[in-house]
Amino acid sequence: MLKSKTFVKKTRSGGVMKVVREHYLRDDIWCGSEVCTECKQDSAVLQRDACIESSLCPYPHYLVPDTNIVLRQIDVLEDPVIRNVIILQTVLQEVRHRSAPVYKRLKDIIHEQGRHFYTFTNEHHRETFIEREPGESANDRNDRAIRVAVKWYSQHLKTAESGSDGLKVVLLTNDQGNKLKAEENGLVVYKFDEYIKSLIGNPELVDCLALSNDDKNEVTSSKVLFPEHLPLSKVQAGIKSGSFLQGTFRASRDNYLEATVFVQGEGEDSTEVLIQGLQNLNRAVHQDVVAVQLLPKNQWVAPSSVVLQDDGAAKDDNVDEDEEEKVLTGPLTETARRATGKVVGIIKRNWRPFCGMLNVSQIKESTRHLFTPADRHIPRIRIETRQASTLAGQRIMVAIDGWPKDSRYPNGHFVRSLGGAGEKDTEEEVLLLEHDVPHQAFSQAVLSFLPKMPWSITPEDMAQRQDLRHLTVCSVDPPGCTDIDDALHYRELENGKLEVGVHIADVSHFIRPGNALDKEAANRGTTVYLCGKRIDMVPELLSSNLCSLRSNVERFAFSCIWELNHKAEILKTRFTKSVINSKASLTYAEAQMRIDDASKNDDITKSLRGLNKLAKILKRKRIENGALTLSSLEVRFHMDSETHDPIDLQTKELVETNSMVEEFMLLANISVAQKIYDEFPESALLRKHPAPPPSNYDILIKAAKSKNVMIHTDSAKALADSLDVAKVDGFQYFNTLLRILATRCMMQAVYFCSGMDSDFHHYGLASPIYTHFTSPIRRYADIIVHRLLAVAIGADSTYPDLMDKHKQSTLCNNLNYRHKMSQYAQRASVAFHTQLFFKTRGILNEEGFVLFVRKNAIIVLIPKFGLEGTVFFDSKDKASPNLVFDEEGPTLKVEQHTFHIFDQVKVTISLDDSNIQHQKIRMALTEPVIPGVSVPVPEAEPQAKKQKLDR
Amino acid sequence: MATVQVSEAEKVYILHGIRDDLRVDGRGCEDYRHMEVETDVVSNTDGSAKVTLGHTAVLVGIKAEIGKPRPMIANQGYLEFFVDCSANATPEFEGRGGEELGTELSNTLYKVFNNQHSLDLKSLCISPGEHCWVLYVDVLLLQCDGNLYDAISVAIKAALFNTKIPKVHISSDEEGGKEIELSDDPYDCMRLDVENVPCIVTLCKIGHRHVVDATLQEKACSVASLIISVTHKGIITCSRKVGRGSLDPESICEMIEAGKRVGKALHPPLMKLLQQEESLGNKRQKVGFLG
């Protein structure tokens, strides 16, 4: 039977279009129930004895949720207790239209076999399809469609032969009007919370309930705290006319009353708008897309350099905000003022479930508690739970439901518990979730594209590749490395020239474009290394076996082979797919030992020496060109082999062989970058490192000046040179500190598509062009570069997406994002392990250097542990000492003592676990001793400290 | 124009018949052939109608689009006509064969319908000077068996009656920018008042008499014909003479009187039919093109 659906829609040009779609009705759509004997279905999804124990429905029943229930209460529906649910097509379509993430979650539940969720295509069923009636809104029509379907189901199941066992269909809706009408029609209908509360034996589900609108009002006081958000139409009109700006809201990590809105302009023309104060922030949450209105110029303020955290007990909603906000105002210099605005509307919320912990309310019986997210960009969330005592001390996930204008905090609900706080597995899970690192096991679909084991090289493979098995190839990697993606060889040619080859694992041979494996790798973007854990980008079979260039096995490689003269000048470059057989996999230290051990004279050692010699020349040339040698302290944990707890910690040491391998990798990357750019000027995937804006160096120049050292930042070369000569007598560590500071001034290096950009320069390496070619096992960018190069030398075929610069560009964005997140995750993991380490150590007394000076704190670096910490000079419970901050220095005068950058100080380090959520390393000053009672001596027991000092 | 070859003997036969008020198919001089009207036949138009008159068949579709009002008449919408003489109707229309006839027909239609007296064009205005509805009236000739004008005019009237224009609201913001907002209820629409929409009556001068609704054979016997458009009150809104022959003033007066009479009588049954069809709503069984 044919029906047509008609609707009108507005076109982009402002016209109006009538759209007519054909709609076919059928009579062969089955009900999906085991009870039914009429429907000719192969396998019924809904069970005969659909039993969820409920005090409201003691009989077996199927549930039919309406759209709003699915949208708002998906967390409850995800619970395995909820089974035998009929999802109507009307509901599914509406959910899909309104929220893609919820739709995906719903689809996942439906696909789960054990859950018995059945999709009933009521819109195409002859008896349940209804047409919209005159005067009926789209929502009313859908509600009616749902009721009609429920009615049909209850009659259908009743007439079925075995209908005697009293199987019923229960409609769940929170809509009062819908409920009344359903009752009139004689349907069994309950409100969702009524039903969930009636479940016997599953009281914890109640906590997952999202607050519905009518509950919210009672939670909060009547006082309106925030200005109303403008409706979307007004916001859009305002943006069009230029009176509002649209941008991404970025809450400040350090100050909960401050945020910036990043407004993406045309091309380079992007601005940041500062937002200060609760009223102006107006309920925006980190990463929301918001509309801001600029304040008049005389109300513009400077970003405050105060560190302010929203902690303590829940603030009353009608607390005097002035009190909270007065700390923000400080002396204003005209130059420091920045464009300041206020949030007038939210264009798109970007809420996700947040990890964090519960602050249990002081009132014992209270079911409302505040939840503190781990991410400090996110405000605290008010949730309702009756299991507060169990959840205290656990890491939990919470989703925000809404933020009414009369509530100080957003309202949310409990999603799930991740485990006890401070436990290693929980914390690792938290940091992976918080950094959006995909870390689930690889799906079957992905694994199905792996080569079949046992795998061997076929004669066809050999025919397409150059046989380099006879060469003395070896690899040098950090200890414990199982994903070896590069190997080297060196030999002297008969013509007196030198041949050096870089052999990179040929991952693109195994990962073919477009399949599930490729898509998964593209999404993950990079392998994430945490302390003692690796989140692979490609399944282990590839990363640690087939692609890994282990010694004494034949492996596919993509080789870059140069002919060099003795001055390390490139005479010829050649790329080829090859088969190699590595003769040795060494660690950096082993390689170094071989080079240094004069008694060894085997082939491998000789090659290593040759490589080392060339590498030194290459490095010198590079530095002459202005490449920067920067420094950041990296720490390495010695892990206990059984508990995987850190037992010792040391900063990573670099040996010559590190830079030897690095030199040749750089050379390979540059050669490949040039080759793919020559071949595909529009679609080469390259990596650039923009020169930082001069203002970035201010802090570095100021800091150096305080020690009477001049730093020139006109060019990379000038910077490198002045860093080289920057030395202060009796201050060995000064140079390293400067380099650490310089590193902080740099921009992020990013991947980009050559067709979309014109600036290719790599500032740090002082190379006009650069890409990543040498680590395809752990970086997806390298796989793309491999494919491009393979096409360029005719070793592989191309595919459309590879040459599409827009697709490439989107890919680059994802890679850059994943890359950044993996770095953050890595740092967070190090921080967590540092905390574990200090937990067992008690209070330590160490020497350190002042790295930054802030308005109310100094940031201290402890070189021994590569650890950075903040020493606060003001605290809430004590009168703060007399602080004078001078931005020019920058210096901070605490009572009589003035702190400069690079000052040497002594601090105590201890683990502060008073707030288990944010366990942090607490540092307190012990030297210089600032006289006066108000000296901010640490809260850690002075007794213990003194003993340490005495020793 | 589609023509048929008629022999002299046939012509005489037709002529003599008409003189005695008896036409070849048995009609009197002022009788129409059997007429069928069906509206809402093309779902993706805003209004449509199909009319068959004897073997003549025309299809009219009306699409409403938002446009800018004509500068001189800022507070009115307007109509646009296009007549497609499909080669389905007659092989003569193949290629560009129908173009001339199409232009001639649409020019007449502009004159007859596109004025404030026929249709309340002011109701088509959305915001004066900025937005108005433009009704694109597309006429498709499916089969030609004489008397195209009358069939087309009836079809247009029926299609206008059937036209449902989505209701729009103009929302303006503080800056004076205007935004058109659309109701999401497909039933929330505006109807046109077609009471004053005229119908065309074509009178063919054959011998000393004149006939309405001439077939192709009769047409071949005629030297000139008069087109008059008549409203339900019998007011003549337009008249035109077509054909190469001449008409004497006396017979023009006679023809106009006859046209008025016939035209006035045409409206009430048409409106009754349209309203009847409308009242059936969704339950109506559509005939369409295969019935």
Structural account:
Chain B: Belongs to the RNase PH family. Chain B: This is Exosome component 7. Chain B: It is found in: Cytoplasm; Nucleus, Nucleolus. Chain B: GO terms for molecular function: mRNA 3'-UTR AU-rich region binding. The complex is a heterodimer of chains A (951) and B (291). Chain A is α+β, with helices and mostly antiparallel strands and 951 residues long. Among the domains of chain A are: 2-191, Rossmann fold (3-Layer(aba) Sandwich), CATH 3.40.50.1010; 353-421, Beta Barrel (OB fold (Dihydrolipoamide Acetyltransferase, E2P)), CATH 2.40.50.700; 444-683 and 768-822, no CATH class; 842-927, Beta Barrel (OB fold (Dihydrolipoamide Acetyltransferase, E2P)), CATH 2.40.50. Chain A has 29 helices and 37 strands. Chain B is 27% helix and 31% strand.
Map the helices and strands:
The complex is a heterodimer of chains A (951) and B (291).
Chain A (H helix, E strand, L loop, with lengths): L1 E9 L5 E9 L36 E5 L1 H6 L1 H4 L7 E4 H10 L1 H12 L5 E4 L17 H22 L8 E5 L3 H9 L3 E3 L1 H6 L7 H4 L4 H7 L12 H10 L3 E7 L6 E6 L7 E6 L1 H4 L7 E6 L26 H5 L14 E9 L5 E6 L8 E6 L7 E4 L3 H4 L2 E9 L8 E10 L3 H11 L9 H4 L11 H6 L1 E2 L5 E5 L8 E7 L5 E8 L1 H4 L5 H9 L3 E3 L2 E3 L4 H7 L7 E11 L5 E18 H9 L6 H22 L10 E5 L6 E6 L4 H24 L5 E4 L9 H8 L10 H10 L8 H12 L4 E4 L26 H13 L7 H4 L1 H37 L2 E10 L3 E6 L4 E6 L10 E4 L4 E4 L2 E3 L4 E9 L7 E8 L14 H9 L1
Parallel strand pairs in A: 3-6, 4-5, 6-7, 10-12, 15-17, 18-25, 19-25
Antiparallel strand pairs in A: 1-2, 8-9, 8-11, 9-10, 11-12, 13-14, 13-16, 14-15, 16-17, 19-20, 20-21, 21-24, 22-23, 24-25, 26-27, 28-29, 30-31, 30-36, 31-32, 33-34, 34-35, 36-37
Helix pairs in contact in A: 3-4, 14-28, 21-22, 22-26, 23-25
Chain B lengths: L7 H12 L15 E5 L7 E7 L2 E12 L10 E8 L13 H15 L11 E3 L3 E13 L4 H15 L1 E3 L1 E5 L5 E5 L6 E3 L7 E8 L2 E4 L3 H6 L2 E7 L5 E7 L6 H32 L11
Parallel strand pairs in B: 4-6
Antiparallel strand pairs in B: 1-2, 2-3, 3-6, 5-6, 7-10, 8-9, 11-12, 11-13, 13-14
Helix pairs in contact in B: 3-5
